[in-house]
Amino acid sequence: MPDLADRLRRAGLRVTSQRLAVLRVVADHPHSTADQVLDLVAPGRTAVAEPTAPGARISRQAVYDVLSAGVTAGLLRRIEPAGSPARYETRTGDNHHHLICRICGHTADVDCAIGAAPCLHPADQDRETVGSDGFLVEEAEIVFWGRCAACAAPRTATDPSP
After folding, report:
1. Where in 10-118 does DSSP place strands (E)?
2. Helix/strand/coil (H, E, C) string of 1-18?
3. According to the annotation, is 101 in a ligand binding site?
4. Alpha-carbon dihedral of residues 104, 96, 13, 15, nearest 10 degrees?
5. CA–CA separation, 35 vs 114, rounded Å?
C-alpha cells in the first residue's frame, strides 16, 4: 500500500496523526467496525509518546469523522451487512464482494467471477437504464452468508465454542 500520508494528500485531506492512525488500523485490520478501530487506535484511550502510533489520543467521534472522510475521499470502503455494524476496509477501486460468517461475523473478501462492475445486471439488463425510474447501474455489492471454517467444523460435546 502506498504511503498513507501521500494517499491522504492526493485525496485532498490534511495529514494528521489521528487520520494516519485510523487508516493504518483499517489497513492492518480490514473489515473492522468503528468501535473495533477505536479500540485498536486508542486502547484505554491513553496518550503515548509517538502521536501517530496506535494509542494516540482520539475520541469516538474523531474515529467516525476520519472513517467518513476516508469513505468520501475514496480511501476507504464502507461495507454495511444487514443486521451488523458497518465495517471498513482499504481495498477500494476494484470489484470484490464479501463472505460473512453467520456465527462469529468473520468477514473475508471474495473476488468477483465477472471481474468488471457492476458484476450482476437486473432482469432488463439490455437497456442502459433500468426500471421506470431510469436507474443507471454502476455497481453491485454482493454479500455471501454462511459459516467460516472454524464455525462449520464439527464440535465435540465438551467444546464450548460456537
Report:
1. 32-33, 77-79, 87-89, 96-101, 107-111
2. CCCHHHHHHHCCCCCCHH
3. yes
4. 60
5. 34
Find out whether 119 is annotated in a ligand binding site. Answer: no
Measured between alpha carbons, how far is 143 from 106 in angstroms, rounded to an integer? 12
Topology of domain 94-148, per CATH? Dna Ligase; domain 1 (3.30.1490)
**Does residue 142 contact residue 96 with C-beta atoms inside 8 Å?**
no
Residue 65 CA from chain centroid, whole number: 15
104 is in an annotated binding site: yes
* pLDDT the model gives residue 158: 63
At 88-109, the pLDDT tens digits run 999 998 878 999 999 999 999 9
Domain 4-79 in this protein, CATH class: mainly alpha
- Quote the CA–CA distance of 73 and 149 in Å, as a whole number: 35
Quick: pLDDT tens for 16-34.
999 999 999 999 999 999 9
112 annotated as a binding-site residue: no
As a dihedral over the C-alpha atoms of residue 97, residue 102, residue 106, residue 107, rounded to 10 degrees, the angle is 10
Domain ranges of the chain: 4-79, 94-148
